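Box 3.1 — From sequence to structure: Sulfur carrier protein ThiS
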Amino acid sequence: MKLTINGEEVETDTETLSTLLQKFDMSGSEKGIAVAVNDTVITRDQWNSYQLNSDDHIEIIRATQGG
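Predicted structure (token representation):
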């Protein structure tokens, strides 16, 4: 299926949001990650069951420290 992740088109056979995050080395248990699918924030407790669909637009934001 075709997904758009942070503005970049990606082909994948991933079915759930959790699996997608693991594929991109963003473990579902890692703190500081926020995910929105089609402009809707998906809470961490939904990641394992959230089914992705072709043409979904996904934004993954990782909090970082700086100063």
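Summary of the box: The mean pLDDT is 89.
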